[in-house]
Specification:
Blueprint lengths: L2 H43 L4 H35 L1 H25 L7 H8 L4
Helix pairs in contact: 1-2, 1-3, 2-3
């Protein structure tokens, strides 16, 4: 197979993974926000003794710390998305892969019966001695 197509597919998959993880982190922050609101509501509406209040405090602290870790990762992912302009990059990669595939199909017809592949050449030329 054409190395350009293989690399293009890896890049396309990586971009999809970045977008998918960004959306997962976004949903996760929302879930943490809901959980924090639930804890606040419990504190507001219940009369807690010192022990129960401390348990709620520790629960809230744990949820807020997890949320902060997720938000830090989310911010990094957002910066990555913005700097690469992911949608435009995806479009360019798709177009390039489509063109590369057409070119590769033509090359395959041209080289039909040659019994030579780029993988074989690279293995033969770059084997450690």
């Amino acid at each position: 197979m054409c190395m350009a197509i293989e690399f293009g597919n890896v890049i396309a998959q990586t971009i999809d993974d970045i977008s998918n993880n960004y959306e997962k982190l976004k949903r996760l922050i929302s879930e943490y926000d809901i959980r924090v609101s639930q804890i606040y509501h419990e504190i507001e509406t219940k009369n807690l003794n010192a022990s129960e209040g401390f348990k709620k405090y520790k629960e809230l602290q744990f949820v807020l710390r997890e949320r902060r870790v997720v938000k830090h990762e989310f911010s990094s992912m957002r910066a990555l998305l913005v700097s690469f302009d992911i949608e435009a990059t995806k479009s360019k990669i798709h177009k390039t892969l489509k063109n590369s595939q057409k070119y590769e199909e033509g090359n395959q017809i041209y080289r039909e019966g040659w019994n030579v592949s780029i993988e074989d050449i690279i293995k033969a030329k770059f084997v450690k001695i």
